[in-house]
Write a structure and sequence with these properties.
By secondary structure, the protein is an alpha/beta fold. The chain is 39% helix and 23% strand. It is built from seven helices and seven strands; from the N terminus they run βαβαβααβαββαβα. The chain has helices at 14-28, 38-41, 65-73, 75-79, 104-112, 134-146, 162-174; strands at 3-9, 32-37, 51-57, 82-89, 119-124, 126-128, 156-158. The protein has a five-stranded parallel beta sheet. Strands 6-7 form a two-stranded antiparallel sheet. Helix 5 links the parallel strand 4 and strand 5 (119-124).
């Protein structure tokens, strides 16, 4: 039975929701799954696991600095395992920016990190205006206005393609 570690870096919870779906697939394939936040992962012994998946969201155009610190610090162990990485961002709602080859945040991640994951994924995220504080609501609305996205601050807009998540989950589970 394979031991799988899933690490998530999320701001509003959509990355964790995607990780939950991937964990379900791995469990259905009889894997022992441990899922932790990036903060909790600092105290996890990676050598115990056969497979490692890391999922991270974008906020204001960037992955969190702690993500780069973690993957660069642990790249040797990550490279010795079956591994995968995915990013979650609202830019990926656009068909021309929803693949690892075309998504600007995935490209930037790969340029800035020493780790080169074996499997890559890009998923569109979710905008949940009612949950945001004033500043975030204002900034995200402004970004959406510039990029021709939804600007109705009373709404929640989910762009995640759950079929695409499921395909990624199956591919990761079979690794």
């Amino acid at each position: 039975m394979s031991r799988t570690l899933i690490i998530y870096s999320t701001v509003d919870g959509q990355t964790k929701a995607i990780c939950d779906r991937i964990a379900e697939q791995c469990k259905s394939d009889y894997q022992l799954v441990t899922m932790v936040s990036l903060e909790e992962a600092q105290s996890v012994n990676l050598s115990y696991f056969d497979k490692v998946l890391i999922g991270a969201s974008i906020r204001y155009g960037k992955h969190r600095p702690e993500l780069f610190q973690y993957v660069n610090r642990h790249r040797a162990v990550l490279n010795s395992k079956k591994n995968a990485f995915f990013t979650v961002n609202v830019v990926a709602r656009k068909p021309e920016k929803n693949t690892p080859e075309t998504n600007p945040y995935m490209k930037k991640f790969l340029q800035l990190t020493l780790w080169q994951p074996q499997q890559l994924g890009v998923f569109a995220g979710k905008i949940d205006y009612p949950k945001y504080r004033f500043f975030d609501k204002f900034m995200i609305r402004f970004i959406m206005w510039i990029t021709k996205g939804p600007t109705d601050t009373s709404g929640t807009f989910e762009f995640t393609d759950w079929d695409k998540v499921q395909e990624f989950a199956k591919a990761f589970s079979e690794r």
